[in-house]
Amino acid sequence: MHINTRSIASHLADSDAITPIGRILRKTKLDELPQLWNVLVGDMSLVGPRPNLPNQIELISERDKLGVYNVKPGITGLAQIQNIDMSTPEKLALVDLKMVNDLRLKSYFKYILQTVLGRGAGDAVQP
């Protein structure tokens, strides 16, 4: 992001707020590499519900109601490969719940592979 960009969820940011190198990092998912540290220390999983921002009250409420927070957050998941971003909190929470309830070893690696291959835009930036 450019200097002086408001601190907001990335899907709410204007596309002109993203630097050219930032665009490449997001497109290739390289911007997720720092989160691997969180996976290595056990705070996150590779697959799980994406962490939300503390100010995303509606999403927090929906996920809390459904018990989504009973699992570790992840770098990628079903919502990301289906292009469901955090701007639709109720839908996102339901997809997160479906993923948590249906997660098996095969789907775990399927989500990782689909993410690496570029399926889904993750937290899409508004054009």
Account of the protein in words:
The chain has 127 residues and is mainly alpha-helical. Helix content is 43%, strand content 5%. It contains six helices and two strands. The chain has helices spanning 20-27, 35-40, 57-66, 78-81, 89-102, 105-116; strands at 45-47, 74-76. Strands 1-2 form a two-stranded parallel sheet. Strand 1, helix 3 (57-66) and strand 2 (74-76) form a beta-alpha-beta unit. The longest helix is centred in the last third of the chain and has 14 residues, at 89-102. The protein is globular and about 40 Å long. The model is unreliable at 122-127 (pLDDT under 50).
Written as H for each helix and E for each strand, in order along the chain, the element string is HHEHEHHH
- Spatial gap, N to C terminus: 15 Å
Largest β-sheet summary = 2 strands, parallel
- Please state the overall shape, judged from the principal axes of the Cα atoms: globular
Radius of gyration: 14 Å
Helices, by number, come to 6
Strand tally is: 2
Work out the strand percent.
under 5%
> How confident overall, as mean pLDDT?
84
- Fraction of residues in H or I helices: 40-55%
Provide a quick synopsis of the model.
With 127 residues, the chain is mainly alpha-helical. The protein is built from 6 helices and 2 strands. A two-stranded parallel ribbon has the order 1-2.
Could you give the topology of this structure?
Blueprint: H1 20-27, H2 35-40, E1 45-47, H3 57-66, E2 74-76, H4 78-81, H5 89-102, H6 105-116
Parallel strand pairs: 1-2
